[in-house]
Each structure stands twice: as structure tokens, then as C-alpha cells.
Design brief:
- The complex is a heterodimer of chains A (about 600) and B (about 110).
- Chain A has about 600 residues and is mainly alpha-helical.
- Helices cover about 60% and strands about 5% of the residues of chain A.
- Chain A folds into 3 domains: about 120 residues; about 325 residues, no CATH class; about 120 residues, 3-Layer(aba) Sandwich (Rossmann fold), CATH 3.40.50.
- Chain B has 4 helices and no strands.
- Chain B is globular, with a radius of gyration of 14 Å.
- The chains are: A mainly alpha (about 600), B mainly alpha (about 110).
Chain lengths: ~600, ~110
């Protein structure tokens, strides 16, 4: 892993062995077991541990069988791992199990944000141009413009797109990471192992229908180009003296000898950078940091690329995004202490089960980072450490203290580092002497390690399932509110996430009880605030109370079940408040102005 | 690529873009419309643009088809929204034109000795 590999070597053709066939069948059995088991889970999920608390044991049998199969396939024989289609099939099964599990449970997309993003795309496609004063999304509309075009041109059901977006996005990310590994190692075992670890460590849950998922894919494509056609071969580093640095810098040579190819790759990179700048607030900064670090390491040929990317970013901020930035200074909530409070302290509250989920997320991240550190040391001792991988794993951390990003910066940082953490961690999981074929003893270590990572990832990813997996009754309540509420009325839900705003994005004032009463949700304090807010709205208000949103407040420690019942009891006896809709999982109260 | 004439893949790509753009604009039953629109909006432009680069690695080529297809559609759609000329039909036409223009550029590369 010391230099860019110019021409990835093709895997030579071999006949299908009995092991290949058995691995393929075992993969199919794993998928059937896991999907079948997930389909039996009842919604709403009734565990503060999330899906992991309610998934029946055949799901875990499927996960275990899949990991055993992967290790057998990875071990292969003396010529290499199992055939490429077999390895690809196992990756596909893993993606379906880990990232499609919720889609086997219910046909309603998880979480609130995907619904909101559908609403923004719908608003765009029904509007004349882009009004940046609406909210932040309309200052970075690239992804939503793409989504609006695709949804309208294809006629595909938007909810289906949102439901399967995690699987689609993981497919895109894995494609990019797969190509990336071809520039870093010739060892097929290591390449497949990186993809496996990338899946097993992907608890961040950022693969839903979102600009950041799209931006992350484009980020990975840019990194591939920087590692491939735009890479430079650096000379031996002699020291930090000015003369040494100058000589070292001038001795760089392009890894790709064809100038036309390099220019083409540069043009593609600039297009991707521009689209990233237009699509997401955070990704261009992470890209700029990574690009700058790689260039300063002498491993990128076009040395002015970070400067050009920086200019593109500034131009976007100064012109199309200026409306949002004028009211929201980007460094307003910066600082290490603020970042730690928002990303760690504020998240470690709630019920015992929820706290365990948070600890699992932190633990999984630390395990992977520890493996990556061990892999880095191992590669360094063997003089095969690629400094670019280390830089790409570490540089996202630089952004952590700059912006709290709503308490999500650590999640984003760990996601952007993950592909490179997986590459470094893979070093420590394969033998170093001679062949990288795992020994029988090594196999006994790999299987429980992968199974443990899979359990932790399912726990971390779906740990909020009690409140981000919605029942059909809850969707019926949201549809009822959409039908009942006249334009201009306020719609008040108990908490995020609520699956609303997928249509009529601009027609209502959307608020949650936790927004209106950020510090105290007691009936005595919060009740009058909510009532006044709805009552004083000229078009009236609709109070949407769903089981999942109530669970969100309880699980995260903002109120108790009893406290929430008292709040509802107080509200429903007020003057002008009447029950407009109800079912087993939701109530809708109309507040007459 | 013969070095003297336009290659068949280039011709096929350009003609597919023309044909599928028209078919998509006129409309097809739902599953076919979905497939046709995805091909004409993402796959064909991505493939035509990626072929302008001498990419020898098939995996990188496939990644560039996806990346370029999605990025160019995002750029075209965003620009149309800012210019208040957006419609999905206009996007289909524009992506078809981009594909044909990329094929013409590729054809010029191929006929140049």
C-alpha cells in the first residue's frame, strides 16, 4: 500500500468450485432467514433498544450464517478468495440485511427527514424558481433539484424511493469504495474485507434519502480521482528545511502519464465539486480539507485544485447561499466545548435502553478506530503504510470543533472517516507473513468479530426504532391532518421525528411540542404555551399526538409517560379544542382560533 | 475504435439518447417509463461523458458513469430551477442533447488519426 497502483489486476477466470456454490446458497439462506424474521416484527416497535430488542432469533442466525459464509469465501483457497460474483453476492446480501432490515419490517420509510426531503422536492417542482428565504434547504438545492427531476420523469412512487434509499445509497458508496481499494492494494482479499468492514461499521444512519448521502457518494468519487488519474508520485521526503521542501515538491511526478486523461479527470472533479457545493452545507468543507491535506502531502498532481475548489465553495456561499448565511453565521456555535456538549453530553440522556444504544454507537466507533490504529502501526512497521489513507481517516476530525452542526458533527465525521478506517483496520485482520489467506485459527477470530460488529451496527442503526419506525395508524393520522388542516393553519406534533411535510411543505406552520417548550414539558407550563400558539394562529391549529413521537420524548428523557398523559389531558379540555381524528396509535385535536 | 470511422458504441449511444428521449417524453407505462427515464437522464449522459476520457479500468469507468450521470443531472436541474425554466421534459431534452454532444465529441476523437 505504498503507492498508487496504475492498473488494477484482473482476477483470473476460474471454474465454480463446490465452495463457491455452497457460499452462494448460504448467502441466499441468510437473506431468507433475516428478511423473513424481520417481516414478523410488529410496529410500533415496543423496546427502547430499538429493533435489536424485538428482532426474533432467526434474524441473528441469518446474520451469523452470512458472516461464517463470508469468512469461508474470503479464505478461499491458495489461489485467492471465492469467485468475484460470489463475493459480490455476499456483499449484496449484507447490505440488504443491515440496511434494508427496516424495509422488511414495514413499507413506511424510517425517520422524519426523508419525508421532509420529498416535500422539498415536491415544492420545488411546483414552484417558479428557487426562493432562498424559505429555509436552508433552498440555499443548497442541488440534490432536491435532482430528486424532483427523477421523481417527475420516472413517475416512481416517492415513498418507495425513500424506503429503499439506504440500500441504494450503500450500493453507490460501496461501488466508490470498491474502486478506491483497487488503487490501494492488489490483494483481492483485502479489498473484499474493506467493503465488509465498511458495511459492518456503518451505524451512522446517514444513508437515507438526503443531500448528505448524495454528497458523500460524490466525495468518494472525487477521492477516487485524486487517488487515481490525479495522483502524484512523491519523492523521498528529506526534511522540513526550505531547500529540502522545495526540492521534494518539485520532484513530484504525475502517476498518470497521459495529460489528456489528467485534464479530463480534473474537469470531472471540478464538476463534482460544484455539484457538492450546490447540494450540501457540510460536505464541501470536508472535501476541501481532504483535498488540501492530500495535496500538501505531495500526492496530488494538480496543486492548485484546493484553491479552485475553495473559490467554488466561497462563490456558492457568497451568492446562492447568502440569504441563509446572513442570518446564520457558520461559526456561531463553534468551539470544542460546544461541540462536545452538543455531540456527546446532550445525547447521553434518556432511558436505560436508549443510553445503552448511545454507548454501543460510541463503542463501535472506538473499536473500529482502535483496529485502524493497530493496522496503521502494523503497516508502518512493514513499510507499506499509505499516508493518504491516514490523512483521509484523520482530517474529518478537524471539522469537529468548528461547528456543532445540530449535535450531528461527530456522526458525520465518523462517516467520512469510515472508508479509510476500514482500509486501515483490514490490515490487522489478515495475516501479514506470506499469503493473506486467513488461517483456521484466524477464521475462528474473524467470525465472532464480524458477528459482534454486525450486532453492534444493527443496535446502533436501528436503536431509535421505537420512535423512528412508524405504524400504519400513525401514517393515517398524518394523512388525516393533511386533509383536515386548511392552508395557513399550524400543525403541532409532539416531537421529532414525525413523518410530515412530504406534501404542502409551505402551506402550514409546522412545530413540535419540544420546539415550543424546550425546557419544561409539564402540563402546567407547556400546556398554556401550546394552546396559545395554536389558538392565536388565524387559521387555527391541529395537534398531532402519535405513539412514536410520545416515545421519542420519553426514551430521550424529556418527559415521562405520565407527564405526557397529563399534558394531553390538560389540552383536550380547553375551550375550542376537539378531537378530530383518532385510532389506536394517534390522536388529532383541532384547536379553533 | 477504428481510428478512421465512428465506432459502433458511439453511434449506438447517440441514437439511443435520441430515441429514448423521445420515448420518455411521449410517455410509457409506469415500469417502462421509470427504466427509460433513468437511462436517458443518468446512464446515457454518464456513459457518453465518461467515454470522453481514456479510462482503461472498467470499475472506474462504471463509477464515473454513475457519478457523472448524477452530477450532470443535478447541475442541469439546479440551473433550470434558478433560471425558472425547469420542467422534467426540459431536463430530458437537455440530458439528451448533452449525450449527443458528448457522442459527437467522442466521434471527433475517433476520426482524428
Amino acid at each position: 500500500m505504498t503507492s498508487t497502483l496504475k492498473q488494477p489486476s484482473p482476477t483470473h477466470a476460474r471454474l465454480w468450485s463446490a465452495r463457491d456454490i455452497w457460499c452462494t446458497v448460504a448467502g441466499a439462506v441468510s437473506l431468507a432467514l433475516a428478511a423473513g424474521a424481520a417481516a414478523t416484527v410488529a410496529v410500533p416497535v415496543n423496546s427502547d433498544l430499538g429493533l435489536v430488542g424485538v428482532l426474533p432469533y432467526p434474524f441473528w442466525v441469518g446474520v451469523l450464517l452470512l458472516n461464517i459464509t463470508f469468512v469461508v469465501a474470503l479464505r478461499g483457497d491458495s489461489t485467492g478468495p471465492a469467485r468475484r460474483p460470489v463475493m459480490l453476492w455476499l456483499i449484496v446480501v449484507l447490505v440488504l440485511i443491515l440496511f434494508g432490515a427496516a424495509a422488511f419490517v414495514t413499507d413506511v420509510p424510517r425517520g422524519e427527514v426523508a419525508f421532509r426531503h420529498l416535500g422539498i422536492a415536491d415544492t420545488l417542482s411546483n414552484s417558479d424558481g428557487i426562493d432562498p428565504s424559505i429555509d436552508a434547504y433552498f440555499n443548497w438545492p442541488g440534490f432536491f433539484a435532482l430528486l424532483a427531476t427523477v421523481l417527475r420523469a420516472t413517475g416512481i412512487d416517492p415513498v418507495t424511493v425513500a424506503l429503499w434509499a439506504p440500500v441504494l445509497n450503500m450500493g453507490l458508496w460501496l461501488t466508490a469504495v470498491g474502486v478506491l481499494t483497487r488503487y490501494l492494494t492488489n490483494d483481492p482479499r483485502r479489498r473484499w474485507l474493506v467493503l465488509w468492514i465498511f458495511c459492518l461499521g456503518n451505524w451512522q444512519d446517514q444513508d437515507y434519502l438526503s443531500p448528505q448521502a448524495f454528497g458523500f457518494f460524490l466525495y468518494l468519487v472525487v477521492v477516487v480521482l485524486l487517488m487515481g488519474p490525479l495522483a502524484a508520485k512523491a519523492a523521498v521526503f528529506r526534511g522540513f528545511k526550505r531547500a529540502d521542501l522545495t526540492a521534494w515538491w518539485k520532484a513530484r511526478t504525475p502517476a498518470e502519464p497521459r495529460p489528456g486523461y489528467r485534464i479530463g479527470a480534473l474537469v470531472v472533479t471540478l464538476l463534482l465539486v460544484a455539484v457538492i457545493c450546490a447540494s450540501h452545507q457540510l460536505t464541501p468543507f470536508l472535501l476541501l480539507i481532504a483535498m488540501t491535506a492530500l495535496t500538501l502531502s505531495g500526492r496530488v498532481w494538480p496543486s492548485r485544485l484546493p484553491l479552485i475548489a475553495g473559490i467554488l465553495l466561497v462563490l456558492w456561499l457568497v451568492y446562492p447561499a447568502s440569504t441563509y448565511l446572513s442570518g446564520h453565521p457558520p461559526l456561531a456555535d463553534g468551539g470544542l466545548q460546544t461541540a462536545i456538549e452538543a455531540n456527546l453530553v446532550d445525547r447521553t440522556t434518556g432511558t436505560a435502553g436508549h443510553l445503552l444504544v448511545v454507548q454501543v454507537r460510541i463503542g463501535l466507533t472506538l473499536i473500529l478506530w482502535a483496529l485502524a490504529v493497530a493496522g496503521t502501526i502494523r503497516d508502518w512497521r512493514r513499510r507499506r503504510l499509505d499516508i493518504r489513507v491516514v490523512l483521509l481517516a484523520v482530517t474529518p476530525l478537524l471539522l469537529f470543533p468548528v461547528q456543532a452542526y445540530g449535535g450531528e458533527m461527530l456522526i458525520r465525521v465518523s462517516l467520512f472517516a469510515l472508508p479509510f478506517i476500514a482500509i486501515l483496520a483490514s490490515s490487522v485482520l489478515l495475516p501479514t507473513k506470506g499469503s493473506t489467506r486467513p488461517t483456521s485459527r484466524g477464521t475462528l477470530v474473524l467470525v465472532p468479530t464480524f458477528f459482534l460488529l454486525a450486532v453492534l451496527t444493527v443496535t446502533g442503526r436501528f436503536g431509535n426504532a421505537q420512535y423512528d419506525v412508524f405504524a400504519d395508524n400513525e401514517m393515517a393520522a398524518v394523512a388525516a391532518v393533511d386533509h383536515l388542516a386548511p392552508p395557513g393553519s399550524a400543525i403541532i406534533s409532539a416531537a421529532h421525528p414525525t413523518p410530515w411535510r412530504s406534501q404542502d411543505y409551505l402551506d402550514h406552520r409546522y412545530r413540535t411540542i419540544e420546539d415550543i417548550c424546550p425546557s419544561d414539558l409539564s402540563a402546567a407550563t407547556c400546556g398554556p404555551l401550546i394552546y396559545r400558539y395554536a389558538k392565536h394562529n388565524s387559521a387555527g391549529g391541529y395537534l398531532l399526538l402519535m405513539s412514536s413521537a410520545e416515545s421519542s420524548l420519553v426514551v430521550q428523557g424529556q418527559t415521562s409517560q405520565r407527564g405526557f398523559e397529563e399534558l394531553e389531558d390538560w389540552l383536550k379540555v380547553q375551550d375550542g379544542v376537539d378531537l378530530a381524528f383518532s385510532n389506536g396509535d394517534a390522536r388529532v385535536y383541532r384547536v379553533t382560533p | 475504435m477504428s481510428g478512421r470511422g465512428v465506432s459502433r458504441p458511439t453511434l449506438a449511444l447517440g441514437l439511443s439518447a435520441l430515441g429514448l428521449s423521445l420515448v420518455t417524453l411521449f410517455g410509457l407505462p409506469t415500469p417502462l417509463q421509470t427504466i427509460a427515464a433513468l437511462i436517458v437522464l443518468i446512464v446515457l449522459p454518464g456513459q457518453a461523458l465518461a467515454r470522453l476520457m481514456p479510462v482503461s479500468d472498467v470499475a472506474l469507468g462504471a463509477l464515473l458513469v454513475l457519478g457523472l450521470g448524477l452530477a450532470s443531472l443535478a447541475a442541469v436541474s439546479t440551473a433550470m430551477f434558478y433560471l425558472t425554466i425547469w420542467s422534467w421534459q426540459a431536463c430530458v431534452v437537455t440530458m439528451g442533447v448533452i449525450t449527443v454532444l458528448a457522442c459527437i465529441a467522442r466521434a471527433r476523437q475517433e476520426v482524428t488519426p
